[in-house]
């Protein structure tokens, strides 16, 4: 499993920009979608400033693909806008296969964990929507919980990130205002937290979800906002 600099370190000061793109596929279009999305990934891999590309698929209200692209910094990402934006490539080349327009988020890593002796077999992404007024408190609660041995020991590879919806407004602000970075935008306006979890077997996955610490984290967050869990079936 290829990962970027997130692996094995706490990433509170990482300059990498993580771009997460979700594409939901129409029923019966699985085979055609798989071929086209692989072609899109190959196009992305030629982008200057790209560090890594990972693609997962899963089933949640139909087939979906989740792309993770990491970039050297926000400058590299902004330079890639014309030719190498995952959402734009998906919208152009897979328009007739998509249920809805792709969603995309820009994120910075907050925490990472890796247990390299055990390769991951199961994975999931948890997206949490929280108001900008409450996100800092929810973020700190999850950071504290994820570092507890009861949870950490069950994970093979995991990371925690914070971000915003990738909108024309966000791009325009950072392009036209050199003094404003994505980090500053995230601090002021971010409303999304993302957890990536992976486990070496199904027992560890079920034990993780059953842990009281995780259950309490989930319940407290549901009082503040929304949680969407996306089980990931495989990596391309």
Automatic annotation (TrEMBL):
Domain ABM residue range list: 19-80
Cited InterPro entries: ABM_dom (IPR007138), Dimeric_a/b-barrel (IPR011008)
Transmembrane stretches, start-end: none
Protein name (database record): ABM domain-containing protein
Organism: Dictyobacter alpinus
